[in-house]
Predict the 3D structure of the following.
Amino acid sequence: MEYANERDFKYVMQDTSHVFMGGRMSYEDMITWEEVPFKIKAIVNKYFIGKEESGLAETIVALEQDDFRYQILKQLKIKIKAGTYQMKKSLFGKEEEKYISKLYTLDEFMQLAQAEKRLVTEEFIFSKLALMAFSL
């Protein structure tokens, strides 16, 4: 069963220069959803499906810099929006756990994923210009 908060992270949107995809989309979702640009479907089908991971978030967390898929994602200039839980002082001086959402480059996200246990992958952002320049 898929929970509502899980569906909140499964979407595809576009503007004039970027494609935004929800952070919980599986490779199957990417291939079957009509809204996903064909170039992304082709890249996922050719280079990512068939590995042990079921989605891009899992792949990036387990990725090494000598992996060819790392080079592909760097070429596509992917950015990842992710959230972490951090302890912050409130206005009254009390320590509270706050959810902080931030945009990361691929390298920054990979470093964060190694250090952070409670990382929430919210969104993947692909540059349309980089997608156009990528040849299959």
Summary: The chain has a mean pLDDT of 89.
